[in-house]
């Protein structure tokens, strides 16, 4: 996925993770040491943090676009990158340069070289957390007005928690990473909501299951003394034409509402309606119901990133509204996603299952006998063209990024400020 130059630029972000001993756990204490070593005491700009199980990237992008439409400079940190790790850090919607990533990697590397040994400071630093740290460094370097952080897997256990947010946006939370973040949706919700800090002034959430909402409300009251603001009336505050379709719209409105609240709390001007609509209309979300054509061919590919049965059902419905038939479905879901739900929803469709090479993921769950299984290295434009004229790609954001790379899709800029 990454070119040689991109690989050399981002190696430092994976060094501590790659050298971790067996059984090592992600360590926020290690992250705090690193911050001290590189002279980073916190974020010098207002922080808006997005947490949740799904839809975080959409919410973070639209929050950033809303803030940029007000005239401010916005640095956004999301995870993972699509075609390059440069895309994890963006300024006003555009991925940073390879030179900028190399400079940030050098600063991270110097800090890592000064860390105490693991006998004194056990654990390891996750790549996503180091990119978050680099994003904060970058925001300071370019004198950004706002910093939008998308949490990785967690909340309180994620490095985003080291940079107290002024505003927190909470997308839908469900049973994902069970046994890692918690043993139930309620425990997972409490962990994700723990990104809320004493300095937090507002917490906005999409509607949640009652028990999940109660768990979030408890954390928000205990940590910040605030009441949770649930966006029960999502819809109608922004024109439909400037928002993505279906469930993406809810996450987009969450991001915009959180950005609006931040500007109000800071007593700064809101975007002018015309400027806001122009910026929001320019938003592009590769890998989220995005359409592409195979290079040198006629095959159309729709790419979406659902990880649950409900998400796959929605993607199928939206695709059928555009196509009368779906010639083939590509699916990539690691074991910790809703593989069983995907099998139910995709019954009757011609499906090829794709396994990623990344060691983060395991693919051991049973699949229907009629589903061919391939490795990601087999994905080529020629392979895609051989599947038919209408191909639907479904799976994790990592897989969507791999598909976007094969299709040579434009992912450098998400919106025009």
Shape: globular
- CA-CA gap between termini: 27 Å
Secondary-structure element series: HHHEHEEEHHEEHEHEHHEEHEHEEHEH
Mean pLDDT over the full residue set: 92
Low-confidence stretches: 1-7
How would you write the strand order of the largest sheet? 4-3-2-5-1-6-7-8
* Rg of Cα set: 21 Å
Q: Percent of residues in beta strands? A: 5-15%
Measured as a percent range, the helix fraction is 25-40%
Largest sheet: 8 strands, mixed
Structural class computed from helices and strand pairing: alpha/beta
Q: How many beta strands in the DSSP annotation? A: 14
Describe the protein:
The protein is α/β, with parallel strands linked by helices. It has 14 helices and 14 strands. The strands form two sheets. Strands 4-3-2-5-1-6-7-8 form an eight-stranded mixed sheet. Helix 11 packs parallel to helix 12. The radius of gyration is 21 Å and the shape is globular. The two termini are about 25 Å apart. The model is unreliable at about 1-5 (pLDDT under 50).
């Amino acid at each position: 996925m990454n070119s040689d130059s991109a690989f050399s630029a981002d190696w430092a972000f994976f060094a501590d993770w790659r050298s971790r001993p067996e059984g090592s756990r992600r360590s926020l204490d290690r992250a705090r040491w690193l911050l001290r070593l590189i002279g980073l005491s916190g974020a010098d700009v207002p922080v808006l943090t997005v947490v949740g199980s799904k839809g975080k990237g959409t919410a973070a992008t639209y929050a950033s676009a809303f803030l940029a439409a007000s005239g401010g400079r916005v640095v956004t940190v999301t995870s993972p990158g699509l075609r390059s790790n440069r895309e994890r850090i963006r300024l006003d919607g555009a991925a940073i340069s390879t030179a900028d990533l190399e400079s940030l990697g050098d600063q991270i590397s110097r800090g890592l070289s000064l860390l105490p040994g693991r006998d004194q400071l056990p654990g390891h630093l996750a790549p996503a957390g180091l990119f978050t740290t680099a994003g904060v460094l970058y925001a300071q370097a370019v004198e950004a007005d706002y910093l939008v952080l998308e949490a990785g897997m967690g909340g309180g256990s994620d490095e985003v928690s080291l940079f107290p947010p002024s505003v927190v946006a909470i997308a839908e939370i469900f049973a994902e990473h069970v046994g890692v973040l918690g043993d139930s949706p309620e425990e997972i919700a409490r962990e994700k909501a723990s990104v809320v800090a004493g300095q937090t002034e507002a917490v906005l959430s999409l509607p949640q299951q009652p028990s999940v909402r109660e768990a979030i409300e408890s954390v928000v009251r205990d940590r910040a003394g605030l009441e949770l603001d649930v966006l029960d009336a999502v819809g109608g505050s922004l024109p439909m034409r400037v928002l993505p379709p279906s469930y993406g719209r809810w996450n987009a409105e969450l991001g915009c509402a959180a950005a609006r609240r931040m500007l109000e709390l800071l007593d700064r001007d809101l975007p002018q309606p015309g400027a806001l609509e122009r910026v929001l209309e320019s938003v592009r979300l590769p890998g989220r119901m995005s359409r592409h054509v195979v290079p040198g061919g006629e095959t159309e590919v729709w790419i979406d990133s659902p990880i649950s049965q409900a998400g796959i059902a929605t993607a199928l419905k939206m695709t059928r509204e555009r196509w009368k038939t779906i010639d083939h479905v590509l699916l990539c879901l690691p074991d910790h996603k809703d593989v069983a739900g995907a099998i139910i929803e995709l019954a009757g469709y011609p499906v090829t299952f794709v396994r990623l090479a990344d060691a983060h993921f395991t693919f051991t769950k049973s699949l229907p006998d009629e589903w061919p299984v391939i490795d990601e290295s087999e994905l080529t434009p020629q392979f895609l063209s051989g599947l038919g004229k209408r191909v639907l790609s479904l799976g994790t954001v990592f897989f969507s990024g791999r598909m976007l790379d094969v299709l040579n899709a434009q992912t450098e800029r998400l919106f025009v400020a």
